[in-house]
Design a protein that fits this description.
Elements: H1 2-12, H2 16-25, H3 27-30, E1 32-38, E2 44-50, E3 53-58, E4 69-72, E5 79-83, E6 88-95, H4 104-114, E7 117-122, H5 154-166, E8 175-182, E9 193-196, H6 239-242, E10 243-245, E11 252-254, E12 259-261, H7 275-281, E13 293-299, H8 311-314, H9 327-332, H10 334-347, E14 360-367, E15 370-375, E16 384-392, E17 402-403, E18 420-423, E19 434-441, E20 453-454, E21 457-458, E22 461-468, E23 471-477, E24 485-490, E25 498-503, E26 507-510, E27 522-527
Parallel strand pairs: 6-7, 6-8, 8-13, 9-10, 14-21
Antiparallel strand pairs: 1-2, 2-5, 3-4, 5-7, 9-13, 11-12, 14-15, 15-18, 16-17, 16-19, 19-20, 22-23, 23-26, 24-25, 24-27
Helix pairs in contact: 1-2, 1-5, 4-10, 5-7
């Protein structure tokens, strides 16, 4: 792997003479070559590929010579394509399962070309080609030829070189898309496209979600991405059936006329032993870093296609497979390809805006020096970092004591979607405090400090009741902002509370109802908030 690493480092830095020399030096061991391909469109690529072994012939188990396959690969490590002038200079698409996930290959190649991404990686062998047979029957965990599970593989080594060279959080220009496809029959609840950041990351950030202006992968799709297939306009697919997202909470797709919830299904969100996913998520802050690894699964026969299964219409033509075989599939997934391109473009626009301003709406005294504050709405930002809550017994300002997500016990302030927090350890009585809030993003931009707010509500405490002749006198602790209380009685056998009266002070005198003689009576004091 050290020699491959040298080759890939030369390629990443555009030193193609160095890469070519190193590959040629390993010719007898690797049988690889570096070729430059010029497209009629003007696009130019450097391709690292294994030389074809023409002695290999697969007759496909029949006597039809038209579908014979001539040529194969002895190493099967894959093909690695580098764009000479990528438009998205840190965007990579890789397909680690070229046989099982057959739909990923044409869609991935088309995505690479249309979005003008930097690197295309296609593994060279199915995952069943080589596995630990001594351990028993094949399963995915025993494979050696699957580069998403075998770290000692050129495919995996290039993935590591890409991260080591280009990874730059928190606002990361690097986006690697690992593309798969699945058998719809065994994953029925999934939409046609299943998107995740990884199995242990349910907090998608840009370029997948953007709460500020909805410039993200999902809002790059129209409400109906698919309106016909092969001339059949009865097949129309809404965006919430076309694409899903592993997230918490569920993401909502909104336009001026439409609101749809993007489905959340915990299936095919990245196997826990995916060596590329693990490497890219090492050191990745799931709430604050933009996504450098995106796992995507494509349905090989989308749910709204013809029933019973009409594979000849979906993938027309006779073997061997050619590009035209996938013409309907590529048309079906074209909205997704275009959406990825748009999302990458939006992701690359510099963020120079502070988080949205939020305002405090309540401060509730919980007693014992604890206050729960709430604010009106999330401080949406493309690259949110933390809320900062300021508090003071004098006029609250930016120089006042404050808490943020990095303070012990206040990690919840790092959740952009949160709208409340409990501040503890305040000096009592807490009525002397006022509070204010602002938000900050990872680039250092800060929203304006909100107007100050004092205690607006709290528990009624120290309630006591005394006999005063034929009457009962009640007292309780009052708070500065309180101006009215209701007193209620729950006599035995009445089946509910009975209203006794209202007071503007912290005491109340009343004569118990006739029901009180039937047993213990419950009294209640309610604060009335105007």
């Amino acid at each position: 792997m050290a020699r491959w690493r040298q080759v890939f480092l030369c390629a990443i830095h555009g030193d193609w003479e160095c890469a070519d020399s190193l590959i040629a030096r390993q010719d007898s061991a690797w049988n690889y070559e570096l070729a430059r391909i010029e497209e009629p469109t003007g696009a130019s690529y450097y391709v690292m590929r294994e030389r074809l072994d023409s002695s290999y012939v697969d007759v496909n188990g029949d006597t039809l010579t038209a579908n014979d396959v001539h040529g194969g690969f002895r190493r099967g490590w894959g093909v690695f394509v580098f764009s000479a002038a990528p438009r998205h200079a840190r965007a990579v698409v890789q397909m680690p399962h070229p046989e099982d996930d057959f739909m990923s290959i044409p869609v991935g190649i088309e995505l690479f070309q249309q979005a003008e991404m930097a690197i295309l990686m296609i593994a060279g062998a199915g995952r069943e080609v080589m596995y630990d047979s001594a351990a028993g029957q094949y399963n995915n965990a025993r494979t050696f030829s699957d580069p998403s599970r075998n770290a000692r593989h050129p495919f995996s080594e290039l993935s590591r070189v890409i991260k080591d060279s280009w990874n730059s959080p928190p606002v990361n220009p690097l986006v690697l898309i690992q593309l798969h496809s699945y058998d719809h029959a065994t994953h029925g609840p999934l939409p046609d496209i299943q998107v995740s950041c990884y199995h242990n990351d349910e907090f998608p950030n840009a370029p997948l979600r953007n709460f500020v202006n909805q410039r993200d992968l999902f809002h790059a799709h129209p409400v109906f991405p698919v309106t016909s297939v092969d001339g059949d306009d009865t097949i129309d697919v809404a965006v919430n059936n076309y694409i899903g997202l592993w997230s918490n909470p569920a993401y909502v797709y909104t336009t001026a006329e439409t609101t749809l919830t993007i489905p959340v299904v915990g299936d095919l969100i990245g196997a826990p032993d995916n060596v590329v996913g693990d490497y890219f998520h090492a050191g990745h802050d799931v709430q604050r870093h933009t996504e450098n690894f995106i796992h995507i699964e494509l349905d090989e026969y989308p749910d709204k296609l013809w029933a019973p299964l009409d594979w000849p219409r979906w993938l027309p033509g006779t073997p061997p497979t050619e590009w035209n075989t996938y013409r309907h599939a590529l048309a079906y997934y074209q909205p997704f390809i275009s959406a990825v391109d748009s999302a990458l473009t939006w992701h690359e626009i510099p963020d120079e805006e502070p988080p949205l301003v939020c305002n405090l709406t309540s401060a509730y005294d919980l007693a014992n020096g604890a206050v729960t504050i709430t604010w009106d709405a999330p401080a949406y930002d493309r690259h949110f970092d933390t809320y900062q809550v300021f508090f003071d017994t004098n006029e609250v300002s930016l120089s006042s004591p404050h808490i943020a997500r990095t303070n012990t016990g206040y990690n919840a302030l790092g959740n952009m979607l949160g709208t409340s927090i409990t501040v503890s350890g305040l000096r009592t009585p807490v009525w002397d405090y006022t509070f204010a809030i602002r938000a900050k993003d990872v680039l250092g931009y800060e929203s304006e400090l909100s107007p100050a707010l004092g205690i607006t509500d709290g528990m009624v405490r120290d309630v006591a009741a005394f006999c005063d002749g034929d009457s009962v006198r009640m007292t309780w602790s009052a708070q500065p902002n309180d101006d009215r209380y209701e007193v209620w009685e729950f006599p035995p056998g009445l089946g509910g509370y009975y209203y006794l009266g209202t007071t503007l002070t912290n005491n109340f005198v009343f004569v118990p109802t006739g029901y009180s003689g039937n047993g213990v009576c419950v009294l209640m004091v309610k604060r009335v908030i105007e």
